[in-house]
Amino acid sequence: MSRGILLYAEVTRTGYIHTVFFELARKACELSEKLDNAPIMAVLFSKPGVINDYKEGFTNSGIDKVFVFEDEGLEQYSTDLYSNLITDLVKEIDPEIILIGATNQGRDLAPRISATLGTGLTADCVELDINEKGMLAATRPTFGGQLMATILCKTRPQMATVRPKVFKPADEINYKNTDFIYKALNLGNIKNRVKLKEFTKVLNDTLNELDSAEIIVAGGKGLKSSEGFKMLEELAKLLGGAVGATRGAVDLGYAPHSIQIGQTGKTVTPKVYIACAISGAVQHTVGITGSEYIFSINNDPNAPIFNVSDMGLVGDVFDIIPKLIEILKEAK
Ligand SMILES: Cc1cc2nc3c(=O)[nH]c(=O)nc-3n(C[C@H](O)[C@H](O)[C@H](O)COP(=O)(O)OP(=O)(O)OC[C@H]3O[C@@H](n4cnc5c(N)ncnc54)[C@H](O)[C@@H]3O)c2cc1C
After folding, report:
1. pTM recorded for the entire structure
2. Cβ–ligand 1 contact at 146 (below 6 Å)
3. Does the structural domain 5-189 have CATH classification 3.40.50.300?
4. 52-85 pLDDT, tens per residue?
């Protein structure tokens, strides 16, 4: 039997387990079946008590074992502390595969782990499978999104980070009698070279929220400047949503790359996606097709975005968005 699949259960800055963990859990169940029912394990770092709200989530997601590292000093993400603890754990339990969400935290942590362990890492995957030789086949876009490459790792453990929202979270209960193993730890023994002083907002506070937002207001080149995006930010705040952008807008410096949506950005699945002055290039729409409802505003009646929209308004964003803002303010 395989030595198992280890999943990183990321705890966010606000104390929740990131939804990408449950997406990884579902995929890990499929991979495990192809690996002779290899055990599925998870590792979690947090301040004491976070796990208590999630025990049922783990037992219902097919996780056999959870390694819990709890300490007040682990409340804040630290590359040094987390990577030291996880590499020691990996040496102890010797998993065959390690899967981590390609979030800001995961993208920082995973390369540190793979470099320390001297193993390979396929980053930012959009598909995972087990090939005929029982190896992890990790697929990711390459050459700026022009091609898809399936990558095998010769060394062990095989590591991959996976973009949030490319897999669905488990939609049915896969009950396991999960073993919660609380690991003793002494953080004083680990050199922690970086101290977090503060978080700075880039556009608004949407960096991680795009992954979980129920409403996304996204802008394209037609917004003409970063000032145009301030207008979107105001609308998103009134709707309780997050702001996204096209690559066109990001390349022109109107919005940061961290909120780019599409083939070379994030995949999003909100309940409502509001596309403002976005033409609807396939490289953008590929990242939004999981949205429940798409509403578009564009001054070109032939813009392709209308072909993938549930409802569209032909008009100028600089007329329509301020009116929407006004109506929402009045309604509040
Ligand atoms: C390999 C590769 C990967 C890519 N990856 C991505 C990706 O991840 N994400 C992504 O978004 N793109 C990606 N692209 C780029 C993509 O092909 C498009 O170029 C990009 O999405 C266009 O951005 P846009 O809609 O903002 O701009 P445009 O295509 O220029 O569209 C602007 C739209 O705004 C409308 N408009 C202008 N002014 C107004 C106004 N005042 N009111 C209302 N409407 C107005 C116009 O009618 C037009 O439809 C990629 C391209 C390649 C080749």
Report:
1. 0.77
2. yes
3. no
4. 999 999 999 999 999 999 999 999 999 999 999 9
